[in-house]
Recover the amino acids of this structure.
């Protein structure tokens, strides 16, 4: 399973929704529908894969407007539509899986799951666009010390405890993002420590955090959100956690990162020089590979 999490903005004097973070002047990936089209082409070429999108809806674009972008990309037919679109199902049990298995989703052709933060669901026009926090809970994301990674629920705002979320049926998205405090209260991803942050073990390591949360929550995180999945051993850490020993079909990607301006630099060397949207201001996440979503 793969998951990616961009931010959507509605720039002035333009009709197309674009992928930016905070300000399109800092970083603009381009129109949403073009990005969705690339995903559609990839799904066409990989009929046994499931992709999850978590769209950060900064400008509160409504479901009808987002549906128009999906229509331009001709990708809506891949959308997963749950039985109830505004509430997570009850937790799965040993004898009853309330979320579909990946195999069931693939067989039905519903291989694109879209969560939007935030969104008023529209059952009639875009039932495949799901409000994120109706189905997902997250731990804290604005961490500035390797010693402070935790598993306590932080969002949605009405969360109270791990026990409550464990019984809610919602999926757990584990944030593992380290920030670097700048002047005027600005925070940026801490590329200085990215190898430690994305490692399997050690203080603040990704693997250490996944094991900690798996133990406290009572089940594996469904999604793991990291900065710069291509830098450091983040993918190796998730493979170890999932028991994947011989992954197949993967391509090398660049280890270059962009700091939000036009400057590009390599972190820890290596990798092919392939321009990819792996930027300091854009979060790209890894999905843990589970037999079922829950």
């Amino acid at each position: 399973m793969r998951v990616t999490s961009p931010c959507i903005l509605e720039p002035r004097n333009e009709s197309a929704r674009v992928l930016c973070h905070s300000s399109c002047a800092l970083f603009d990936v381009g129109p949403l529908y073009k990005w969705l089209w690339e995903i559609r082409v990839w799904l066409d070429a990989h009929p046994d894969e499931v992709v999850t999108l978590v769209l950060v809806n900064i400008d509160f674009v409504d479901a009808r407007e987002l549906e128009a972008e999906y229509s331009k990309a001709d990708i809506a037919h891949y959308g997963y539509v749950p039985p109830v679109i505004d509430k997570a199902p009850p937790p799965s049990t040993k004898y009853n899986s309330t979320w579909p298995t990946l195999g069931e989703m693939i067989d039905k052709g519903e291989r694109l799951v879209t969560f939007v933060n935030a969104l008023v669901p529209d059952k009639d026009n875009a039932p495949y666009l799901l409000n994120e926090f109706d189905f997902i809970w997250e731990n804290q994301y604005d961490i500035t010390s390797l010693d402070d990674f935790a598993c306590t629920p932080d969002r949605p705002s009405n969360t109270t405890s791990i026990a409550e979320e464990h019984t809610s049926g919602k999926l757990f998205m584990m944030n593992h993002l380290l920030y670097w405090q700048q002047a005027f209260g600005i925070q940026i991803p801490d590329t200085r420590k990215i190898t430690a942050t994305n490692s399997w073990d050690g203080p603040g390591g990704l693997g250490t955090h996944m094991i900690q949360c798996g133990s406290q929550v009572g089940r594996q995180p469904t999604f793991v959100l990291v900065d710069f999945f291509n830098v450091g051993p983040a993918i190796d850490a998730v493979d170890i956690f999932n028991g994947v020993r011989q992954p197949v079909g993967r391509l090398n990607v660049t280890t270059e990162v962009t700091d939000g301006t036009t400057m590009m630099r390599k972190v820890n060397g290596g990798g092919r020089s392939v321009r990819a949207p792996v930027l300091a201001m854009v979060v790209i996440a890894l999905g843990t590979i589970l037999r079922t979503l829950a």
The first strand starts at residue 2 and ends at 4.
